Every structure is written in C-alpha cells, then in structure tokens.
Amino acid sequence: MTITLYVDQLWISPYAYSAFVTLEEKEIPYTVETVSLSEGAHLGDEYRNLSLTGRVPAIDHDGYGLAESSAIVEYLDEVFPGVRVIPEDPRERARARQIMAWLRSDLLALREERPTSTMFHERATRPLTPRGRSAADKLIAVASALIPDDERVTIGSAWSIADADLGFALQRLILNNDSVPSRIQRYAEAQWARPSIMKFVAQERTPPT
C-alpha cells in the first residue's frame, strides 16, 4: 500500500492542510510531492490524468487518484482503520460536513483580504474592509454558536477534521491581529497545538515571489 499526497509547492493551501492533517491523525504512511501551481504543473497531462480535475491537493493510492480535499478526507476515513476524523454520530457527522462545505464555499472577502500567505509569511498591512469585516463577523458568529463556553475546544463531542478546518479559518484573523473573542481564540489555539497541525505549520516554506 502506497499513498502519495500532492500539495501546492508553497505549503499554504487550507485544502492540502486538511488532507495532510487527516493522514497524520490516522497515522497512515505516505509520501509528499509538491506541485508548482505557478508553473502550471497541475495542468500537465500526468497530473490531470491522476487528479481528473487538475486540482490540488490530490492523492495517489496504489494507482487510484483522487482530488478535492473533502473527498480525500472522507475516502481516507472510510478506507483506513484507526481514529475517525469525521464523527460517527449522524448529526455530528452532518454538522462537520456542513462546516467543511461552508468554509470551502463562503467567506470570499476574508479569504481575499487575509490570504493564507499572510498566515505563513508577511502579515496583512491593511485593515479589513467593511466587506472583509462582515465575512469575519460571520465566521466568528458561527464559531461562537458552535463553541458555547470557555472550556469547549471541539464543535462536537470529540475532535474532528472540521475543528482543524475551522481553527485554520480563525487563524486568518488571529495571526493578523484582527479582533476575535477570547474564547474563540482559545479554541483556535487548541487546534493549532495539535501535533498533526503543528507538523503542517512547521513545514519549511519559500515565500511567494
């Protein structure tokens, strides 16, 4: 059994992060290949044949290629034994999937004004625009509804990959010194302290040019 994880060459994709954290949490042996998006490597025939859509991240599991981080997470969770990264309880599983889908499809202004490059390289120098602040407020409101008290560090009864994704989104604000309620910051920092996530954060990165 061999798994190769394909990530962006800058190691700043929140989607590559989700796949990476899943592999680490489930303790699945894997190797990593970086894909240069700036050079269009994801558009080449070899990568497109593997990933089907030419998107990053992707995995190659014994010749089976799969792209899209949410699909990768679910596949790894279903195929490999060990700790579950998606809840088994139907309602908690649905909530985790809801949050994962929402974070991938909403909050565009926040992603534009606090891109992941500001998390891992130079911090943002401009305050959030009204549009960006509205997206940030929406993120905080959802997080506040999911994390009802100061002791809570998971959105369900146990940690899931949705916590990793939500924590990542909140770090867009925290690392750029944007205001976040203290209990929400504690939740996000608890995610950032997980060994699997610390390993991703600690990756050597070349600043974008």
Overview of the molecule:
It contains ten helices and four strands; from the N terminus they run E-H-E-H-E-E-H-H-H-H-H-H-H-H. The chain is an alpha+beta fold. It folds into two domains: 3-84, Glutaredoxin, CATH 3.40.30.10; 90-196, Glutathione S-transferase Yfyf (Class Pi), Chain A, domain 2 (Up-down Bundle). Strands 2-1-3-4 form a four-stranded mixed sheet, with helices on both faces. Helix 1 (14-25) packs across helix 8 (161-174). The relative contact order is 0.15. The mean pLDDT is 93.
The count of domains is 2
What proportion of the residues is helical, as a percent range? 40-55%
In order across it, which strands form the biggest sheet? Answer: 2-1-3-4
| CATH architecture classification name of the largest domain | Up-down Bundle
Low-confidence parts lasting 5 or more residues at pLDDT below 50? none
Radius of gyration: 17 Å
Mean pLDDT: 93
Order of helices and strands: EHEHEEHHHHHHHH
- Give the terminus-to-terminus CA distance: 37 Å
**What structural class is derived from the secondary structure elements?**
alpha+beta
- Main sheet properties: 4 strands, mixed
Layout of helices and strands:
Blueprint: E1 3-8, H1 14-25, E2 31-35, H2 45-51, E3 58-61, E4 64-67, H3 69-79, H4 90-105, H5 108-113, H6 117-120, H7 130-146, H8 161-174, H9 182-192, H10 195-201
Parallel strand pairs: 1-2
Antiparallel strand pairs: 1-3, 3-4
Helix pairs in contact: 1-3, 1-8, 4-8, 7-8, 8-9
Features:
Glutaredoxin; 209 residues; 10 helices; 9% strand; single chain; 4-stranded mixed sheet; alpha+beta; Glutathione S-transferase Yfyf (Class Pi), Chain A, domain 2; 2 domains
